[in-house]
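explain this chain.
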Amino acid sequence: MNLPTKTPLSEALRQLVGQSVDAIDTPALVLDLDAMKRNLARMAEFAKKHDIRWRPHAKMHKSSALAKLQMQAGAVGVCVQKTSEAEAMVAGGVNNVYISNEVISPAKLARVAALSHQLAAEQGQLGIAVDSSEGVSRLAQAMNACRTATGIPAVTDVFVEVDVGQGRCGVRPGKAAVALVHEIRKHPALRFAGLQAYQGKAQHLRSPQERRDAIGGVVRDVLATRSLIEAEGIPVDLVTGAGTGSFVLEAASGVFGELQAGSFLFMDNDYAKNERDPAQPQFEHALFVKTQVMSAHAEHVVCDAGHKSHAIDSGMPRVHGLGAEPQLQYFNGGDEHGILRTTHPDAKLPALGATLWLIPGHCDPTVNLHDTMVGVVGGLRSGKVERIIRIDARGALT
């Protein structure tokens, strides 16, 4: 499936490549490629050391180019949450995609089936999560219709999602999951591939002990559910889940075979508030919003990055100190403005036109506000633009 390009790269963006970071107009989403590559290498090393698969969430960066970079580093594929995100990844050349979410609309399931058949023809693979017998039935109908139309005998990997504490999608641990596995196995176009067990609430528990306690409960639920399924003579080939806040615990459990952590690649301000587990690799901030002071006053200055340029669901962005203790605090100024005040009585406000770098509170929805990321090498002070990275799945909500 070839998706139309939403916004062609402007000539101004093309001409940025090779120029100094000073040439980047504001506000702009900027990716420190050196820091990102170090984060990527640390996750790849962790997965190899612990002999565990990793399938990072592409809903975070929404870029097929970065998804392929992750797969080149050892990822088995990527996760997405939306059918349209999966379509964008496949259109960008990603051949192993897992929709770690429920899809119930017949129209969307027809698109899922089309993607599954397209990938099968290209030696790729599509997977999807389910949590209802109706969802299984509708998926099978869509797959059968597509097989009749194409003649391709594709099989979709299907994971039963178990609610292990998120309180969102998923069946209850235990017998409900077993019943759903039996439903999946009735359909030749579907393959029961394992269990989806993601505890999103655990990701931002601040202390390692709180996270250990939460994931301990997850592991107990998964073990009990897996045992019931296996008692029926059905193998559970894979348990997949985990996020940036907890993946060291899932990896150590001996239960999970695949990690879905995604935010580690960029690291936002909210994740930085977590007390680091000593077993977790040290990840760096790699995603920034470049902004500049557009109005100066005696007790505050105003920058040109309001919340149309960064998400505020996880709090305001942090002003990057570029290696020093930040002297400024960001306050909400509305859609197009950010208000900055000093954090110490003797600190000085930046001058009119001064450049500032913001660390977004939440990377995923921040990325979704932009068409492109400006990738720089050599640091934020004196680096240069190496590439422009298209955000293929921006606005992919269906």
Observations:
- Residues 11-15+283-390 form a domain with the Lyase, Ornithine Decarboxylase; Chain A, domain 1 fold (CATH 2.40.37.20).
